[in-house]
Fold this sequence. Notes:
By secondary structure, this protein is α+β, with helices and mostly antiparallel strands. It has one domain (5-67). It contains two helices and four strands, in the order ββββαα. It has helices at residues 38-45, 49-67; strands spanning 5-7, 10-12, 16-18, 24-26. Strands 1-2 form a two-stranded antiparallel ribbon. A two-stranded antiparallel ribbon has the order 3-4. A hairpin with a 2-residue loop joins strand 1 and strand 2 (10-12). The chain starts with a strand and ends in a 6-residue tail after the last helix.
Amino acid sequence: MGNTTAVGGVEHEPGVSRASDGACELERSAASTDGVDLSLIQWMLGLAPAERLDALQGFVDSALSLRDGADAP
Length: 73
């Protein structure tokens, strides 16, 4: 499935979560009834704490870069 995006330096494929053993499995429903993207929640929970911090730091770096008028990294 080739529709991956890099989020904070970590690749994520919408609708796919990473199991604890590293394998990927398709989610039944990518969104809840109120529009929340459950695959992103599952993806973040599947990361190790250090990987979560790296992803979130990437979001912060992008936001600061955009705020300062530079292109996003």
